[in-house]
Write a structure and sequence with these properties.
Elements: E1 8-10, H1 19-22, E2 28-29, E3 33-36, E4 40-49, E5 58-66, H2 68-76, E6 89-93, E7 108-112, E8 121-124, H3 130-137, H4 141-153
Parallel strand pairs: 1-5
Antiparallel strand pairs: 2-3, 3-4, 4-5, 5-6, 6-7, 7-8
Length: 158
């Protein structure tokens, strides 16, 4: 039994991160960024899914890969309040979200920087993938309950 229904979940690292990677030169996993061998660059963000029959939205804490140039630019403006005016950064979703028939790994995204202290907002490319449809059209409270069951009875989310 659990108290209340959670409306936020977070993945601790990009799917490509592992203990073996941690020991490689040029690799680190921080709270907001991750780099693998100075070649692969990731940023933590939020996918927000409206819940049509609830007062709050469902949020997934996910990781998105960025090109080296976009990652460098994002780091340059990380502490700048004007970062909210940055154009979105293209990226690939680097998180496998549970509960979807088709994988969410490598979906095309746009990462939108937010005000200081707020994680970026991740917009999934508007396709007919169920995650993209739910981001556009919302989901039901029953579907949120399905995610809670998966999250509490499988490992990998927190």
């Amino acid at each position: 039994m659990h108290d209340g229904l959670p409306f936020a979940y977070s993945m601790p690292a990009p799917v490509y991160w592992s203990p073996e990677v941690a020991d490689k030169p040029g690799s680190f996993l921080g709270g907001e960024q991750c780099v693998i061998e100075n070649e692969h660059f990731f940023v933590r963000g939020r996918i927000v899914l409206p819940v049509r029959d609830a007062e709050e939205d469902l949020e997934w804490g996910v990781w998105v890969s960025l090109s080296p140039a976009n990652y460098a630019r994002m780091i340059d403006v990380f502490e700048d309040p004007a970062r909210v005016d940055e154009p979105p950064y293209f990226g690939w979703l680097s998180t496998v979200l549970p509960g979807y028939e088709h994988t969410t790994l490598n979906l095309k995204t746009n990462l939108h920087t937010q005000e200081l202290g707020v994680r970026p907002l991740i917009e999934v490319e508007p396709t007919n993938h169920p995650l993209a449809v739910e981001q556009r059209e919302g989901k039901t409270l029953a579907r949120v309950r399905e995610f809670a069951e998966i999250a509490f009875h499988q490992s990998g989310t927190s």
